[in-house]
Design brief:
Layout lengths: L8 H23 L4 E3 L25 H10 L7 E4 L9 E5 L4 E3 L3 E4 L6 E5 L10 E3 L5 E3 L1 E4 L5 E5 L5 E3 L2 E2 L12 E6 L5 E3 L15 E2 L7 E4 L5 E3 L2 E2 L15 E4 L5 E3 L8 E2 L6 E4 L6 E3 L2 E2 L13 E6 L6 E3 L7 E2 L4 E6 L5 E3 L2 E2 L15 E3 L14 E3 L15 E3 L6 E3 L8 E3 L2 E3 L6 E3 L24 E8 L4 E7 L11 E7 L10 E8 L5 E7 L11 E6 L22 H8 L4 E3 L6 E3 L10 E8 L3 E8 L5 E10 L4 E7 L6 E8 L3 E9 L2
Parallel strand pairs: 1-2, 2-5, 3-6, 4-7, 5-8, 6-9, 7-10, 8-11, 9-12, 10-13, 11-14, 12-15, 13-16, 14-17, 15-18, 16-19, 17-20, 18-21, 19-22, 20-23, 21-24, 22-25, 23-26, 24-27, 25-28, 26-29, 27-30, 28-31, 29-32, 30-33, 31-34, 32-35, 33-36, 34-37
Antiparallel strand pairs: 38-39, 39-42, 40-41, 40-43, 44-51, 45-46, 46-49, 47-48, 47-50, 50-51
Length: 680
Amino acid sequence: MYTHKGPSILHFLKLTSFSIVLILSSNLSLLQAQNVFYVDTWFDDSDANPGDGVCATANGECTFRAAIEEANEFPNAGSADVISFEQIPLLSGLAVITSEANYKITSPVIIDGTTSSGEIILNGTDLPGLANGITVNANGSTIRGLTIGNFIERSAIKINGNSNVIEQNYLGVTQDGTLMRNGRGVYVQDGHNNRIGGIGDALSFDELGNGNVIGGNSGYGIFIFEGDNNFVRHNFIGVSLTGQDIGNTDRGVYVFVGEGNVIGGPTHLHGNLIGNNGNGISLESGTTSSIIRNNYIGTDPEGNDYGNSYAGIVLVLDPSVNKIGGTKEQGNVIGFNQVGIEIVESPGNSIKGNFIGVNREGTPIGNHGPGIRVFDPVYVFSVGSSNTIIGYPQESVIPLSMEKGNVIAWNDGPGIVIAEENSVSCSIRGNSIFNNNASGIDLGDDGLTVNDSDDADIGQNQLQNYPVIQRAFYRPGNNAIAIEFTVSSDDTIVNYPLTIDAYLADDDASWEGETYIGTVSYETPNANGLFEIPADDVEWALEDVVVLTATDADGNTSEFSPASTPLSDADGGPVSAINDLQVDNQINKGGVDAVQFSSPYPNPFNPQATFSLTLSERQHVRISVLDLLGREVDLLHSDPLAPGASHEFTIDGSSFSSGTYFVRVQGDQFVEMKQVTLLK
């Protein structure tokens, strides 16, 4: 019988297992190690033996390239390796490393230029045009404290990985402001959860903290392409720490397809200072659920002019469900740009809490065109920018606090212009709009839009008819601001209810609403009502005037109405009631020839007086007789009238008491009142 005299199989397995444990233990120890490689030369030679854990060229020097090659080859799974520059020699405070090939990171590493007492410059002058400065193909790396420039057709830093940090770098410009133009500053391609900048220990916007200075590049400052959940915070993009113009030729920040990216952050210091670029920030082509918050765009906290040559923020070609601003503590400050915010064929975005043309302290920093423009200059995709919310949506209750929708002021154009014909359901509510060099809201980019009978026309925001104010006055007995108005609107054409928002205007000729004061909703067609706002809820004065907007149930907001006459006491007495009605007031949006309203004759009368109307355009006209307290005592007419012909009407005072009355004529384009006296 054969007898096996060697080690048993069990013994062999035990030995083998023991050996495997030793090998694994050794490798785990190796994987958990953090290596520190000390760059000690300006040269750019490769490592002599990558993977041996020693950063050394054939000459025994540790170049930046050799350090990266060792970090890539030497495995670690615990902490990332560190590349330090504390041993690099300096000349006049500088160490200039001229790159001979693209630096590529394939394993996590911390590149820390702040370990040197001088400025570490990566110079791409000698490279062919298609080379990046540093390409990050790994996850969890940090690039800190470098100056990277002269990579003229590509990017200073390109990121293809996730969860990387880019902070305290100068990209495209040196610390003393010398331009070293790259194609782009930072390019994130299909990378997620990366952080570019950060506040660090910065206490104000003249401190770098963990931010980057990115300027002088021929393309974009920061370009995120098909990246999600990346953060861009406290960077100086196109503006140096000292306010120098180092603008990027194209966009400051450009996001093309991505979800959940955040430009700025929860506090003012998280925001970026973005100026002197082509556009400040652009979201394009399917970018969704991104947030632009707390940035200074075209200006800084002191209100200096760093305007971008076109728009502060642009949304173009179908980015949707993005938020520009938020609460009043999250809004962007946008000034000195050609346009504050431009939206092109981009539906379903929200704009709230921003300061457009004015900074947080109220200093005018107006943009050179409109504050917000919904526009389609070239594209013909018929997507429109419908369901844009500027301020509060149709169904929201607007607070009577300082929580304004947006402050839009001092712009050299309309506050808001909806120029894109396919853009409907753009809710514009609760904003503070004043001192712009045109109307507060312009539907059509064509100046003031005349109301039509029953609101049958269509276009931008369905050309929703604005309310027409008969009178607005202070009622001491109720301690209330009372507003009486009508809206020519048929519920078979317009989706009811109509939401009527009231504002105090900056003056009686501006067609703008500066201070929101209240809302009322109407279910009936051709809404005709008087609503009261508790006077103690708002700050107001007797010389103030009121304007209104109407928003239908689909979120289509009208232009502002013509202003009322100044608020005045109305305690029920005859003298103050006459003052309330301001009988010589005329609101005539259609021009001086919109209506010819003859004075009633005879005056005084008993029991009848006649007058005539001649209209320049067909429209719905309501003619009523009011008593001295403003109550309607007779309705003479409420139907359309043809233009051109003279229409005669008769006041029959047979059932009236002797006294003073008013004939009120209200059309889609005008409101006029004339006083008559009945003597029996």
